[in-house]
Design brief:
Layout (H helix, E strand, L loop, with lengths): L6 E6 L4 E3 L12 E9 L3 E5 L4 E2 L6 H9 L5 E6 L2 E8 L4 E4 L18 E5 L5 E9 L5 E6 L4 E5 L6 E2 H7 L6 E6 L4 E8 L2 E4 L2 E2 L3 E2 L4 E5 L6 E6 L9
Antiparallel strand pairs: 1-2, 1-3, 3-10, 4-9, 5-10, 6-7, 6-9, 7-8, 11-20, 12-19, 13-18, 14-15, 14-19, 15-16, 16-17
Length: 239
């Protein structure tokens, strides 16, 4: 489902640099992440911020990273409750406002939360280049709650593989659905968990969520669903 993308996540240490191997169970030393994502003109992509802190130590680093990557007219789509709310960036004021209105985005909309996801649309010409640096999450697990019969946009909380097996281990149940972004089609593709595994239109599908990406999750039950994502690598303390 996922296409080859122009992005990279690099782990670095004081002594050397190494590429992240995005496989469950793999380990690495230290935990410094340098994440680079690109969104081409007229393109949209879901994004996540799987880092525990920015080197700046500022709680506004998500806002700062996005603002430095965009131009006038670019859009950010935030999942608020049950639907997306779209904000447009103004280069003149350096701020976001609700699309086709003068109402500015509240200051707390872009505060960093590991499980939060975002959708970024490039309306300006050229390519939006999003770059941020921080430490790999040291939490042993991250929990996300989804209301009964409802959708939620989730940002991949760890810089590792997020596939069908990870979702099942996190607590997905038959009847639940996932919308993963198809970059070739610029559209969501929906997979449903059945007793036989994940399927799309009744056909088995190898569901995969790209690194540092977000996805929509539907809780098909009548009770709140809690997903628990466990850290896919050995915890390390930054020197």
């Amino acid at each position: 489902m996922q296409q080859t993308l122009s992005y990279s996540i690099v782990l670095t240490s004081i002594a050397a640099a190494c590429s992240l191997v995005p496989a469950t169970g793999e380990t690495y030393s230290n935990g410094v992440l340098d994440v680079r994502l690109e969104v081409t003109a007229a393109g949209t992509r879901p994004i996540a911020f799987p880092v525990s802190e920015a080197f700046t130590g500022a709680t506004s680093f998500v806002s700062d990273a996005l603002t430095s990557a965009v131009d006038t007219g670019d859009l950010i789509h935030l999942w608020l409750g049950k639907h997306f709310v779209t904000y447009e960036f103004s280069g003149q004021t350096g701020s976001w406002h609700i699309l086709e209105s003068v109402f500015r985005m509240p200051d707390d909309r872009l505060q960093h939360v590991l499980s939060d996801g975002y959708m970024l649309t490039r309306k300006a010409t050229g390519t939006a280049r999003l770059n941020y640096t921080g430490t790999a999450p040291q939490e042993s697990s991250v929990t996300v709650s989804i209301a009964a019969r409802d959708w939620r946009l989730i940002g991949a909380p760890f810089p590792g593989a997020l596939d069908a097996e990870v979702l099942v281990n996190a607590g997905a149940q038959p009847g639940d659905k996932v919308k993963a972004w198809d970059h070739a089609e610029s559209a969501w593709k929906t997979c449903t968990l059945t007793e036989n595994g994940w399927e799309m239109d009744g056909i088995p599908d190898e569901l995969t969520i790209g690194l540092a990406e977000a996805f929509l999750y539907y809780n098909g039950s009548s009770d709140t669903r809690t997903l628990t994502f466990t850290r896919p690598y050995a915890a390390q303390t930054r020197p």
